[in-house]
């Protein structure tokens, strides 16, 4: 198969983007990698570019001037806002392959109501639900009163991972409904989804697709709560592990046949031309997978364990999308376990300080450092976000990968840093 060197522009500035950049840099097909805006970690392996990820005109101009072959969209916002459509509708940008769906495909993540209707139509297993807009407060409250708790409430639109509320108490659930519909998340919660609570264990499964063919990537389990034992406030993610012991061949076969195939066929039937990643947020309930949510991009911090386990050249997969040859490409998976622990700023996920000097000492074992919220200031690495650095380590199993991971955290230092000490421990117990 003939190959050519590619110039890549990767949008984003988090741990997901650093992990993607790290993987892209391992490709024999890479000529040059730019990251916009990037972080202190990406600046060590690529060229950071100061462009706003939602400034489509500036991104387009940069792609033309620098002869970019592939635009990889890390976060969801530009996809939901239609960056792929912008490139498609401008003749001078049509030669750029965009990894990420058009607006009509990104609505799978951009509207939970749409996603629920789509799943119902194509018989994809998910919790029963009903949507209400901000003129239907009374109806929403009446619907709650008919149900048994816990009560699951979701803002319909994007809410930076904070738009889900689970309440056991009916009066608290009613108050949450009022707050959401009153504009807690602006336009994102003008419509809400109320759905049944599913009891089970969560897992994330990822595919890359050209809209017809797909390749399944390594699965992962992430840990959202700030506190040990999954307590405290929700965060963007405090760590992740891969593989997930219960996601065996039988489970993945169920996911493929009951969820992945109907999703891709459903998108095609709807006339939605989808290319890029699909993130299936799943829950295992009594041996069967149910969809909690779709995302139209890779997850964070899951990417920090998924990319290290992907042995295949990721640019070959991108080229497969560009040339409609994805079905001919192979996905090879590293059989080792990979664990990642996120080190976050003191105070996160609430108010936290920035500009704290970060030092990273010598690491042991097979370990990667993925920067999430960092920047270079006066030639030094400083904190620039709530989630700062992900320490990612390999091992023959989850237990050994975690041991290496935690042994390296002491080599990272910044003022008031914090991290969870129990990432993956639930899986070790269950495995035994």
CATH class of the domain at 7-102: Alpha Beta
Distance between the termini: 45 Å
CATH topology of the domain at 7-102: Rossmann fold
Beta-strand proportion: 25-35%
Q: Could you give the count of β-strands? A: 24
Task: List the strand order in the largest sheet.
Answer: 3-2-1-4-5
Per DSSP, the total helix count is 13
Uncertain segments are none
Radius of gyration: 21 Å
Plain-language structure description:
By secondary structure, this protein is an alpha+beta fold. Among the domains are: about 5-100, 3-Layer(aba) Sandwich (Rossmann fold), CATH 3.40.50; about 130-195, ATP-grasp fold, A domain (Dna Ligase, domain 1). About 30% of the residues lie in helices and about 30% in strands. The protein is built from 13 helices and 24 strands. The strands form seven sheets. A five-stranded parallel beta sheet has the order 3-2-1-4-5. Strands 12-15-18-23-20 form a five-stranded antiparallel beta sheet. Helix 7 packs antiparallel against helix 8. The longest helix has 21 residues, at about 250-270. The N and C termini lie far apart (about 45 Å).
